[in-house]
Every structure is written in structure tokens, then in C-alpha cells.
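Lecture 7 notes: from sequence to structure.
We start with the chain below.
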Amino acid sequence: MADLKYYDVILKPIVTEKSMASMSEKKYTFSVHPDATKSQIKEAVEKMFTGTKVAKVNTMNLEGKNRRRGTQVGKTSKSKKAIVQLTEDSADIEIFSGL
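Predicted C-alpha cells for the same chain:
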């Protein structure tokens, strides 16, 4: 278990066509720390964005891709993605409101 503070859990929002379409259902996509758990992600979203209540959190572990540069072979770093579903009476997240 990593000793993560709530401000270390969420790294950045993910803005794609698919994630923007799911915002109408109050689902928001974030890139999160690879060691973060679902309960840590829920706590981080509720503390960072006032007025939000999280209904559920879905996470995906993304393995690093193989990359080549000449004869050298390596891997990119692994990452984790979280889709956060807010409750119906919850406030929207302001980061996404201007997009």
C-alpha cells in the first residue's frame, strides 16, 4: 500500500471524445497514481472538488507499451485510469465545464 495524500492521487483529467460524451451521465475520467485504490480515488475527488458525491469508481491498469529506438528495446511506464460516476444530486466538476 502506498501512503498517498489525496492531492497525489489524481494526476490529470483525460479529455477525449469518449470521455466528453460520458460527461452527460456524470462520468468523469482521470489519470491516477498507479498505486491508488478505489477508496483513495473516491476520497480525493470528494475533497478536491467541493459539492461532489461519488457513486462508484471504475479503474483500469494500463501496462507500458513496447518501444524501439534503433536496436534498443524498452517499455513505457505503466499507468492507471479511473472513471468516476457522480450521484444525481452531486455538483458538476468545474474543470470540464469550459470544454
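Points to note: DSSP finds three helices and six strands in the chain. The mean pLDDT is 92.
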